[in-house]
Amino acid sequence: MSKTADPLAGLIDSQELRRQLTALTVPYDGDGSDMRVRAEALSLLKAAMRQAREVAEKRLFEDGGGTLCARRLSHVQDEVIRVIYDYALHHVYRVKNPSAAERMAVVAVGGYGRGTLAPGSDVDLLFLLPYKQTPWGEQVVEYILYMLWDLGLKVGHATRNVEECLRLSRSDMTIRTAVLEARFIWGDKALFADMVRRFDTEVVAGSGPEFIAAKLAERDERHRRQGTSRYLVEPNVKEGKGGLRDLNTLFWISKYFYRVRSGAGLIKAGVFSRADYQRFKKGEDFLWAVRCHLHFLTGRAEERLSFDVQREIAVRLGYTQHPGMKDVERFMKHYFLVAKDVGDLTRIFCAALEEQHAKAPQPLSRLIGQLTGRNRRRRLVKGFPEFVIDNGRLNLASESAFEKDPVNLIRLFALAERHSAMLHPEMLKRVRRSLKLIGPKMREDPEANRLFLQVLTSRSDPETLLRKMNETGVLGRFLPDFGKVVAMMQFSMYHHYTVDEHLIRSIGVLGEIERGEAGDDHPLATDLIRTIQNRKVLFVAMLLHDIAKGRPEDHSIAGARIARRLCRRLGLSASETDTVAWLVEHHLDMSTIAQSRDLSDRKTIEDFARVVQSLERLKLLLIFTVADIRAVGPNVFNGWKGQLLRTLYYETEPLLSGGHSQAPHSQRVAAAKAELAEALASWEPEAREAYLERHYPAYWLRVPLERKLADAQMIREADAAATGFASRVVAHAFEEVTEITVLAADHPKLLSTIAGACFVAGANIVDAQIDTTTDGYALDTIFISRELPRDDDELRRGERICTLIEKALRGQERLPDSVARKAAARGRMKAFRIEAEVLVNNSWSNRHTVLEVSGLDRPGLLFDLTRAISGLNLNINSAHIATFGERVVDVFYVTDLTGQKIGNIGRQEAIRTRLCEAVDGEEGEEPGRRRPRRTSAV
User: Fold this and answer.
1) pLDDT tens sequence across 117-168
2) For 890-913, b where at least 16 C-beta lie within 10 A, e where not — what string?
3) Structural contact between residues 212 and 253, judged by C-beta atoms closer than 8 angstroms
4) What is the chain's mean pLDDT, rounded?
5) Assign residue 420 a region: left if phi > 0, alpha if psi is -120 to 50, beta otherwise?
6) Do residues 462 and 508 lie in contact, with contact meaning Cβ atoms separated by under 8 Å?
7) What is the spatial order of strands in the sheet that 849-856 belongs to?
8) E-strand spans in 391-481?
9) Are 482 and 569 in contact (CB under 8 A)?
10) Alpha-carbon Rg for the chain in angstroms
11) Distance, CA of 627 to CA of 612 (rounded, Å)
12) Torsion angle of alpha carbons 73, 77, 83, 87, nearest 10°?
């Protein structure tokens, strides 16, 4: 199709459709009410609509025009409604001499009224009457609606006369907006014109401020429901912040207040420049393309860009993979840049609303005065005559302030922080249009870098200032490396925000910790941040820690290199630069070790201490890690992760602070036994001495006294009952986990049985410690994620799990069948492809071989892994389960049946093969049938 051709041509031939429908009624003397005729008419209409939609989708692939596609679909819908209306009037409910009351206009309202329609959108109609409803009108409306419903359309409708439309518009803002967007489709055009004329004079006139306030409040509430950030990684294309509805809101206000009929009218009204309007059109076209593809792909009115459709939408839009970035990540980066543009256009629009009408007393100015609670006041900023405080907001005193001194583009944020002033929308608009002034010379300017560091390390609210700096484009221009991660999305369920939004949020969390606003959740981090020697390095490292995301190399190593370069530019000393670079390079270490290593294993602590090297770095890394995890997304950080981090800190601190050296192994075991013996003083001496000999040394060294006492009591009661099974449930509210301890006869599949029972019960295991007694019993303690707020409810849940474990051990419950039924659906994980990887490592522990298994998480995975490990005749000493969105990292400390490490290369290879098969859901098939692609041993 040529560019000059009508883009709506060739979609549907309404004249031919009318001819075919008329031909259907000839044998029935022109009566179209016969059910057989109606069924044939419906078949013709369905075929015409299906063919038209196929053409529209094909053209969307060919020209990529999202707005065009929406217009095409709206045009098709218009034609179908016109044909049905004419058919109803001429062949079904004919009136030879219609009265004045027997008139009707079919009107499109809502999104359909704008002449745009997505494949799955509702069709919102207003049947407009001159007076009250008549039997004829009721029949025609009913016939049209039933035809549309039978075509499979979702139709929203109202039947009103002109007076009702006007009366309801005055009292209901939703109806007022619908009438504002009303568009004539068919019928009595004079009736529609009368409504529009009266609506403009009787409803719209003089009510602009009221409408604006209502629409902006409605927008804010919608943002609150959808998520206040426009950088959520599964955005809602229609309702989310930066989506189509935000552009609709601008258009509603424009049409209502400025009385323009198209986006181009905003240029004449002085609201948008021509460049701004082009951004408006490009953003709208892109969002419509995404939305139409989304509806076509899913076959329904799906508005959320969830992970399971993002990759396919990226392919449909023609995105390809680049080094360091997947096709889907490039597509989503484009999406978030458009969402950012929508936010920028909203600020420009609001600035124009205020500025244009503040100069001359208008109703809007009075509204703004009411909202701010004060009259318009302007005063120069002392020492900086280029700036004024305007109604409590920082603004420019001179339009040439940035051209005279580009450093003002950074200074304005420092002044806003100093004066606790918001930024005036008009100034933000000028900032956006002055970004070209930020070049190499300004980036190296010492004053600009000093001011930026002042903003970054502000003790008040650096997050808000940095977000404004980012939204205006200043941050990405001043730090080009940061600019590369602006709007960058990681195709991962773990990360809730784009990279730049995560970095800015992490600064905000760091500020909360420093101000003591997160003490209940992070007591250790809150205490430590008051003792660190240099807070500056913490804030700089936090801003830069993910700055190298999207590159082919490891982002931690590349980020450290970038940090060294930027720190020098920002004026940091050599030692400060070293600390920042070290934090960036090792920012994942503490989280990884805490969640996936045995913290009771001395080798783990020693290895970590060698990496950290100093107590000051340990403090910095602990605070950094807490803030980083917190900023990933809601509920990612929990009490259990906090407890693991605290344990790692407290175990490492003595090695770095020059405290006492570790006592000999035998001496520590003896001390632990003596401590418990003293606590069990009420026991008979013979029973107490016999009990102390039932545990191996590992138990004495890693289990806290409180749990040892509980274990002793449980084992004693189990001996007396002679049941061979006992269990205990303890709820830990602060850590957000529930502890389940099971005593049972030892056998290799015990942990697998526990894992299966937990899975069937819907419990998520986060850690497990396995101990055996000298008389052949296993004492397994697992920690599951807490689900219920009340302790008593959580305890009952834990007891139900214990009952299921007991039934499985006694053969009353076939776990493999139950697990298979529960795991039948993989759900959203299908969107991801993660290659299974198994690491067999003999250097991480002095006593155990460590198996690190990573891959795509799925229902029942832990059950399959533990079953495979028991089938390999390995003893599991501890298990540590970490999930990062769709990716799971399960770590097992194991020995062979003689208690030795696995040193044989051939056996290591068999372990890797079997566990890779288990990750892929192939456990139990013939070993070696499918070789893993990524395996390694250390």
Assistant:
1) 999 999 999 999 998 878 888 999 999 999 999 999 999 999 999 999 999 9
2) bbbbbbbeeeebbeeeebbbebbb
3) yes
4) 86
5) left
6) yes
7) 725-732, 737-745, 777-785, 765-772, 874-884, 887-896, 849-856, 837-841, 934-937
8) 393-396, 422-423
9) no
10) 34
11) 18
12) 150
Distance of alpha carbon 115 from alpha carbon 288, whole angstroms: 13
Tokens 């059910």 locate to 35
Per the DSSP assignment, residues forming a β-bridge with 856 are 887
The percent of the chain in helix, strand and coil, each rounded to the nearest 5, is 55, 15, 30
Higher pLDDT: 230 or 496? It is 496
Q: Would you tell me how many other CB atoms lie within 10 Å of the CB of residue 204?
A: 18
Structure-token pair, residue 418: 């100093």
| pLDDT tens figures, 421-452 | 888 878 888 898 899 999 999 999 999 999 99
Residue type for position 425: P
Q: Which of these, 279, 284, 334, lies nearest to 69 by C-alpha position?
A: 284
Contact 305, 297 (CB under 8 A): no
Give the N- to C-terminal CA distance of the chain in Å, as an integer. 62
DSSP per residue, 42-53: HHHHHHHHHHHH
394: helix, coil or strand? strand
pLDDT band at 307 (very low <50, low <70, confident <90, very high): confident
Token digits of residue 150 = 């039978």
Amino acid present at 12? I
Strand order in the sheet with 183-187: 155-161, 123-129, 105-108, 183-187
> Could you tell me the two tokens for 867?
């079953």
- Residue 217: strand, helix, or coil: helix
Q: Between 408-418 and 425-432, two packed helices, what is the crossing angle to 10 degrees?
A: 160
**Contact in structure between 502 and 552 (CB atoms under 8 Å):** no
Are the beta carbons of 772 and 753 closer than 8 angstroms? no
Spatial separation of the C-alpha atoms in residues 926 and 52, rounded to whole Å: 52
Yes or no: say if 834 and 887 are a contact pair by the CB < 8 Å rule: yes
User: Measured between alpha carbons, how far is residue 453 from residues 104, 505, 542, 572, 579 in Å?
Assistant: 67, 17, 13, 10, 16
**Which H or E run contains 183?**
strand 183-187
Sheet architecture: strand order including 384-390: 378-381, 384-390, 393-396, 422-423
Are residues 113 and 183 in contact, defined by beta-carbon separation less than 8 angstroms?
A: yes
State residue 666's pLDDT score.
Answer: 78
- CA atoms of 893 and 880, how far apart (whole Å): 9
- Region of 187 on the Ramachandran plot (φ > 0 left; ψ -120 to 50 alpha; else beta): left
C-alpha pair distances (Å), 170 with each of 224, 248, 934: 27, 21, 67
CA 555, CA 833: separation in Å to the nearest integer? 21
Tokens of 451: 């001011």
Domains and CATH numbers, the chain: 14-205 (3.30.460.10), 210-365 (1.20.120.330), 378-478 (1.10.110.30), 516-661 (no CATH), 826-938 (3.30.70.260)
Strand partners, 671: none
Strand partners, 390: 378, 393
| Side-chain-side CA neighbours of residue 396 (13 Å) | 20
Q: Are 404 and 444 in contact (CB under 8 A)?
A: no
